[in-house]
Amino acid sequence: MDFPSVERAVKVYRECASAPSLSSASLQKTGDSVFSVHSTWSQRDLERECNIKYRQTHIVTLDSNGQIGDVIDPGTNTELNSEQLVRWSPSGKLKAVLRKIKDKKGDEKQYLEVWNNIAKIHNINLTALDKHGKVYEDGEFGCLEWSSCESQLLYVAEKKQPKAVSYFDKSKEGGSEENPETDAKKKDPEVKGDQFVHRQDWGELLVGKHSPVPCILNLQTGQVTIPEGLPNDVSVGQAIWTPDDSGIVFTGWENEPYRLGLIYCRNRRSAIYHLDLSSQTCNTISITGQSVRSPVFSPDASKLIYIQNSCHGPHMQCAQLIVYHWESKETKVTVDIVQRPTEGRPFPGLYVGRFEQQCWLDNETILVSTAWRSSQTIIAINICTGEVTRLTNGPDFGSWMFCDIKQRLILACRSSPTRSAQLVVGVIPQEGDISCINWKPLHESSVILSDVIWSVITLKPKTEQGSDIDFETIILKPKANSGSQEKKLPLIVWAHGGPHSVFSTGYLLLPGLFCQLGFVIACVNYRGSIGFGQASIDSLPGFVGTHDVKDVQAAAEAVIEQGLVDRERVAVSGGSHGGFLSTHMIGQYPDFYKACITRNPVTNLADKLFCGDIPDLTMTEAGMDFDFKIAPSAEMYAKMFNCSPMAHIDKVRAPTLLMLGSDDLRVPPQQGIRYHEMLKARGVKTRLLMYPDNSHPINKVDAEADCFMNMYTWITEHL
Ligand SMILES: CC(=O)N[C@@H](C)C(=O)N[C@@H](C)C(=O)O
């Protein structure tokens, strides 16, 4: 087949990859019925080989009926180079900015700034204060919270460690057994012999993040304090003020017996804590033995909500919404785990990482984005009754993300496999059906794939076990051929990673790119994906390498049966567990797939058990209970190997491209390197690309673009 040229592929990549992705968006009331929308975006810059960040501002007015009036785009795109966190104060009059700057010597320093509507009014050099290590700005631990009196800022940073010095450092020889008091006079404590002590961190994408502690900056004094009374061996994150600023509430993850990788893993043992700042007493609010996260107070400060799910088993699960009554301390599960959604009760449960800080429509209703089968959707939850209302279900946009709410003005971001992110606003009706919202776009999607159409098909598994659980596949087709029969197109079957994650009907860069270049794409949400009920998730552990494989194959065959695809030109792709599946497909269906392209694949669970930052994944997905002692029997090793792609290596014929991140801690490169070598030793065509300074996602701008071009040339050469 004459595929589009490499030059065409480069052009299409430049167009599609230029789509900005939303980092954050918030509403500020700036006048009677006037609101400003501040959004920060991330966009690939292929020339500078970096992701640039920029801020956009829009003005929204409400008319006399409280409906959306004007939407004004003052065209104020401003590139942001050093902002790490931004938080507006409760009054909206002040803005806190965490900024990272390199000084003249090239050393990074962090500043906490406060701006009013005229200028910068506070500027604290946190690094120079030397009260803590780096401030955390990540999505797992990071926070930046104003006290209600707007005189203090709360954030988390690396706990300051005593300075480790050598026993042979002559400059330290002043203090000695004869004159120990000399040591005591030193400003900071020093420890001899600890220079090379291993300090475990929280793993992939959280490297160097060991022991975060809460920090309080007093804007009047410019001083930072680390509260006393913190629990031992707990990593603090997501900290917020108690309503009267008398204390803080935070999520604490257990460090002992050792840390397991945290990113993409919502099953890490944790608790919600309340620290009273004056008495320095710290109490746990949540029950022990769970994984909890994202504490948020109601506007009237009467209730605290947080998310809870098991700290055992799958890394992503259906969660509970917990309501904690602040005065009475009564705790209630207001939304429970959903095992199997039904036609009558289609709500599939809660699949949420963190609530937005402004997620309250009123003191009884919260707004949240959650996976709902193959779509990300916005729901409203009545936290007294647990009633769930789906607010976004329109056919034209696939997936929605809730951003902010002020009074009844809601800010959201929507996209689809053929339309990049678009900010929209709407007014939630005061009466009647709150899902009747007239959404108004603030801008057009920057990328619209007008010659691609997408759909979602539902499939029933063919295996007897777990066969009452259906699954879905998102299909992208070139519009030109959607109705025609004469020209059969090549197919790429895509498996997502996790395995407990999901392809959502949002903007999907790689599938959209390949579809633009003439391929049919099938993105498979196999059993075990989130968004389909807990029973689906629980159906996979112990059956990886069979259930997930059979579902991916069933999806491929279902698309072929639609008549558009040339069954002789089918490729398979996926990263991480998606790489586990793509290498399984070419081993178990060696004549069906003619090419394989995979990113950081899991190829041998037995080998992975003692490497990588989440050994628990290996045992969990192989159907075993994880224990921190990890003492597997020979039989357990055999089971882990036998459910791995490496067990099928002798059958592989498909030319296989592997793309590895040299810094990957989640799935160490050796998994891909060994698979590549085993193919070479068997004379199977294979190519391995190793991307330095890239980890599990391989998402540095230059590496990501290079991956795509190599994927394209590999597939077009072998289909
Ligand atoms: C929990 C986890 O990280 N699993 C990995 C093996 C994986 O599949 N990661 C996904 C999120 C990926 O696509 O990288």
TrEMBL record:
SUPFAM superfamilies the record matches: alpha/beta-Hydrolases, DPP6 N-terminal domain-like
UniProt-listed Enzyme Commission number(s): 3.4.21.-
Keyword Nucleus: no
Pfam families linked: APEH_N, Peptidase_S9
Designated name of the protein: Prolyl endopeptidase
Ranges of residues in domain Peptidase S9 prolyl oligopeptidase catalytic: 513-719
Keywords annotated in UniProt: Acetylation, Cytoplasm, Hydrolase, Protease, Serine protease
Function according to Swiss-Prot or TrEMBL: This enzyme catalyzes the hydrolysis of the N-terminal peptide bond of an N-acetylated peptide to generate an N-acetylated amino acid and a peptide with a free N-terminus. It preferentially cleaves off Ac-Ala, Ac-Met and Ac-Ser. Also, involved in the degradation of oxidized and glycated proteins.
Compositionally biased tracts (Basic and acidic residues): 182-191
Subunit structure: Homotetramer.
Keyword Hydrolase on entry: yes
